[in-house]
Amino acid sequence: MILMWLGSFVLMMFGLTMSQKNAAQLFQNFQKSFLDKNLDQPKMIKMFQYCLDVVLLDVSPQKSLYAGLAMYNLRIGGLRSSALVMCLSTLGAWWVALLGMLFLNFNGSFLLGLCFLGLVSVVMTPNVRTILKWILGAGIFLIGGELMLKNSNVLIMALGQSDFAFFLADGRFPAVASIMLAAIVISLVVRVEFWSLVLALSLVFVNVISINGAIALIAGERIGRMLLFWWHSRALNQDCRRVGMQFSLASIAGVIMGLLLAGEVRVTMNMGYTAEMTAYQEKSLQLVILFLIILGVQFVAQMVWGHFGGSSKVDELQDAKYISKVWFTEEYASVGVYVWAKNKIHKRLSEVRYHLQGLGTLQEGQVPAPIQERLKEEEKQLAQLEALLVSSAQ
Predict the structure, then answer these.
(1) CA R_g for the chain
(2) What sign results for the dihedral spanned by CA atoms 309, 312, 316, 318?
(3) N or C: which end of the chain has fewer CB within 10 A?
(4) Domain boundaries, the chain
(5) Which pTM does this prediction carry?
(6) What would the pLDDT profile of 9-29 be if each residue is shown by its tens digit?
(7) CA pair distance 295, 309, nearest whole angstrom
(8) Residue 104 pLDDT more than 80?
């Protein structure tokens, strides 16, 4: 019986992921046009506008974050623009927040019917097909939420009057801290973004988990994402390691402060509760607002770091350690950014190979051995990255 509830949860996650991917695919060409305008603008306002457009069109904070560091690591973007993309990456959650607002407040069957009418009456161009898939993903997400609510009795009966049920419903510090730690660990394993928001929405509606536990679940995922980001950045060159560690620490500090602020706001919201809204509407709106507060404080902390971290001096002589295959296989790749980066990487590879050919005309000892080895290693890694980008584009 519990599989019915789990199936509804998986359906919601599938719809969320599907809508994100198709939205990013739809905006891919627009994103490339902003990247072609050169993010490293001398005017800060222009650079901010271009970076913001790139992030918003990516529809995924995680992919924008990794894309920002990847651009700097691959030397196709400066530190200021790459750091700005990383700092603005949190704003890529706009679509997920919108779906959260629509959860149980909008009929998913209407979106599925709209897709059916589109399939029947509209000529199928690639863009139209992508738009219909985007709408279809949103409809699947909303229908999954409706099914989950219908199957909530199964979950309540499974938990019963057990100690675990009382633990989840307990909004005091020990239970909240334990839920946050569990969410951190799960985020290190589960690669699907915003699973915590979907789970929190599904559990808080049936009073299985407290509001405090729900926002701790969300905060735990955000912290886990930052720990995972630091883990993947530790194998890059010296400056990327520094940027990855500092950014992760600033983000984690922002999440913790956001969690504390969200707790205070929750108390105020409960005091100002009006009976005009239904219980479902009130809980949905409250949880999404608290979710946005956590993201908002995290965003402020990231921007404060970016003001200082994006203007620090960089050592030009660094190890040739580029992003690894896992950035592509685990879907950390930002589709539009990496398609745009393919030509940039090919240009860099051509330059490195030109320098390697020039070494053959020099006398032995004129170029230090460490520099020669660095060029050879860089040529090897760039060739592997170019092959990965070509295969992923096919």
Answers:
(1) 23
(2) negative
(3) C
(4) 2-309, 326-393
(5) 0.89
(6) 899 999 999 999 999 888 887
(7) 20
(8) no
